[in-house]
């Protein structure tokens, strides 16, 4: 977390914003929880009408999955809604079970994350990976232990596992009373309330009773004697063994408060939302190469963290998702596109509210706006009111797997090129066009991304494609003095390709080749990633 000391109070409009993502292992309940957030945030009227099963539904963003399969329209990578005076911006993390750059970049746009774990399964592989990404950014994390209506692990065991596995302190914000069939609800430790589950109606909010500490006779009216005795024992033990919630430690990413609940039964969800509002971080300062940008600065600044194409199948336009780092944005503003040094009138920005996208008349630091464009806006680009700021921290990963891709129908090569360029712009893959020969080479970070790409090209462009092994295994971007690059390219034609920006890439299968070039062309730089900033 950046230095917060001496930070002045934020303007109320900014201070009430909470921008966060939900991370989880597939099936832990992220989609269900998201739906309940939208329900309690007034963004949708009803949750969980349609369910689809199987792995296929995870290849697209979870918001799209909800839209397609549940008949509700969210159509976005970020949703904004009001909750008890807070403005929540929930940013979708892509649903692939493979780690991808997309996920990482999404987490550069948020100030906090909610980690959902399945009470029976505890910390799973994907939870751990995503958690590590959050940790790299010191993101504050709230934990939701889901599916308490099923047989779950012992509460202490779950907490222990998180502490051991993720090396983070865990402070219980609520404590479950029973589990599985016997699950009654939770004791809200933060507010001293008894929260009781209503199993009859899954969208109904549970009963909440104010309690004056554990000796309050009201407890016995609602909790059977045996369970009450266990609750008292456990809470006493928890007090002795577990740290109390410390907001500073949470904001620094060292401690996570945990809530227990059941997303499908709407149980524990509002307490979690309250927790995000009460304890969650305000819009945080953002880093640029030149300086740190604070949310309260009056000039508008923001950066593109995601580009999505084909959101509206009728238009081949793109939407660039911009996280506002500072200021008060108003529709129609002219902003400097720092990379191209051109002014852009932002006349039709969209905010993703309620049931549909809406024109954003205004937005504040912390908000995510979508800017439709024809490809000018790229991931990592900065927008400002004139200052040449280069935002940092949006990483580009080295492609670790390379494959050749061909259209099933050779006549469709042009279509394939268009599709690939789109995905390259979205940051979904690296695409290289070899200087000699036909076809394209695609580079990704995780093997599953090839499948995702093949299915998207087929769906969005009606173009069956084949991925095949490539003779190359590594890609290096080449930079240096122009004459030297020209000489290098001439001597290595078989290994040269261009990426979607036209930049020169050296492809090889031998580390030896790379070492040789470093020796023979000392003025050239070969890098495994390309800086996103110009
Ligand atoms: P994901 O986005 O993290 O992948 O999870 P998702 O919300 O789609 O939930 C995965 C499954 O878990 C869903 O079951 C969902 O209904 C169920 N689920 C979510 N929250 C709870 C909960 O609090 N309690 C219980 N018991 N189940 C919950 P599904 O896809 O319909 O099928 P199945 O896995 O039940 O067969």
TrEMBL record:
Domain of life: Bacteria
GO cellular component: cytosol
Pfam family, one: GTP_EFTU
Keyword annotations: Cytoplasm, GTP-binding, Nucleotide-binding, Protein biosynthesis
GO molecular function, one term: GTPase activity
CDD domains per record: RF3, RF3_III
UniProt keyword Iron present: no
Chief localisation class: cytoplasm
Family per record: Belongs to the TRAFAC class translation factor GTPase superfamily. Classic translation factor GTPase family. PrfC subfamily.
NCBIfam families found in the cross-reference section: prfC (TIGR00503), PRK00741.1 (NF001964), small_GTP (TIGR00231)
Protein name: Peptide chain release factor 3
Name of the coding gene: prfC
């Amino acid at each position: 977390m950046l230095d917060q000391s001496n930070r002045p109070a934020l303007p109320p409009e900014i201070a009430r914003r909470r921008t966060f993502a939900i991370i989880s292992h597939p099936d832990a309940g992220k989609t269900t929880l998201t739906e309940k957030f939208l329900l309690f945030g007034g963004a949708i009227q009803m949750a969980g009408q349609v369910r689809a099963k199987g792995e296929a539904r995870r290849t697209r963003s979870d918001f799209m999955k909800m839209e397609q399969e549940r008949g509700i329209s969210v159509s976005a990578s970020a949703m904004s809604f009001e909750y008890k005076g807070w403005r929540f911006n929930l940013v979708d993390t892509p649903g692939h079970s493979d780690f991808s750059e997309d996920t990482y970049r999404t987490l550069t746009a948020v100030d906090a994350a909610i980690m959902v774990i399945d009470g029976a399964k505890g910390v799973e592989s994907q939870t751990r990976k995503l958690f590590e990404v959050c940790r790299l950014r010191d993101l504050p994390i709230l934990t939701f232990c889901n599916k308490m209506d099923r047989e779950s692990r012992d509460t202490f065991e779950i907490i222990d596992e998180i502490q051991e596995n993720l090396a983070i302190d865990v402070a219980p914000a609520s404590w479950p009373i029973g589990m599985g069939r016997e699950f009654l609800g939770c004791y809200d430790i933060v507010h001293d309330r008894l929260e009781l589950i209503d199993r009859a109606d899954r969208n109904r909010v549970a009963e909440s009773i104010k309690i004056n500490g554990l000796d309050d006779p009201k407890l016995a009216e609602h909790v059977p004697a045996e369970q009450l005795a266990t609750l008292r024992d456990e809470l006493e033990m928890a007090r002795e063994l577990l740290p109390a919630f410390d907001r500073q430690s949470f904001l620094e990413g060292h401690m996570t408060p945990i809530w227990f609940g059941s997303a499908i039964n709407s149980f524990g969800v509002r307490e979690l939302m309250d927790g995000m509002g009460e304890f969650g971080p305000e819009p945080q300062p953002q880093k640029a190469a030149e300086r740190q940008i604070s949310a309260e600065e009056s000039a508008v600044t923001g950066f593109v963290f995601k580009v999505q194409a084909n959101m509206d199948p009728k238009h081949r336009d793109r939407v660039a998702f911009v996280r506002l780092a500072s200021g008060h944005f108003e529709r129609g503003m002219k902003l400097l596109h720092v990379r191209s040094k051109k002014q852009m009138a932002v006349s039709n920005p969209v905010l993703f509210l309620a049931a549909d996208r809406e024109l954003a008349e205004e937005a504040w630091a912390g908000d995510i706006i979508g800017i439709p464009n024809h490809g000018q806006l790229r991931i990592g680009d900065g927008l400002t009111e004139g200052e040449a700021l280069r935002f940092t921290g949006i990483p580009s990963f080295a492609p670790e797997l390379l494959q050749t891709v061909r259209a099933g129908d050779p006549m469709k090569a042009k279509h394939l090129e268009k599709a690939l360029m789109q995905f390259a712009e979205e940051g979904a893959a690296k695409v290289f066009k070899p200087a000699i020969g036909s076809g394209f080479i695609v580079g990704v970070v995780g093997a599953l991304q090839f499948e995702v790409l093949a299915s998207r090209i087929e769906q969005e462009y009606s173009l069956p494609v084949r991925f095949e092994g490539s003779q190359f295994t590594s890609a290096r971007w080449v930079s240096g003095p122009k004459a030297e690059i020209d000489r290098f390219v001439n001597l290595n034609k078989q290994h040269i390709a261009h990426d979607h920006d036209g930049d020169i890439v050296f492809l090889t299968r031998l580390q030896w080749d790379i070492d040789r070039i470093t020796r023979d062309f000392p003025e050239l730089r070969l890098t495994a990633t390309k800086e996103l900033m110009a």
